[in-house]
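Appendix B. Raw example, untouched.
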Amino acid sequence: MKYNKLTFPYKGESHDFVHEGSYKVVREDLEEGVLGEADNDGTIKIDKSVKPGSKKEKEIIVHEETHMNEMEAEDEDGNKLLAYDDDSVTDNIAGKTYKRKNGKLIDNDTGKEYEEGDPKLPHESRAFAASNKIKNA
C-alpha cells in the first residue's frame, strides 16, 4: 500500500474526519487507556483526548496504519497477514493465533496471556517499530 501523506485536521467535516486515502481517521471516545484502533472497515479511530495535529496523533496513526496494511495484505496462499474478529487474532507473519478473552489475548500454542496492545505480541512489535520512527524523530 502506498504511504498516505497525513493532513491534520481535514477542514469542513462535521464527523471529526482527519484524513482520506485508502483509510479514514475519525475521533471517538475509546475505552480507557486506548488511544487508537484499526477497524476491519478501513477506519482508524483516535481517542478524542489526543490533540489533533500532535506528534502523538501521528504516532498513533502510523501504528494503526501498520495494522491496516497487514490486514489488507495477503500471503502467497491468499491468507491475510493479520486477521481479527471479536474472538481471535491471527498473525500469519509470525504464525501465531490468539484467543480473545476479557481484554486479553491468549496464545493458542502456549496459553500465555497478553494484554491487548502488548508490545511483546509480534503484530504489536511491528506496529510499534513503525510508530517509534515518528516518536523518535
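End of appendix B.
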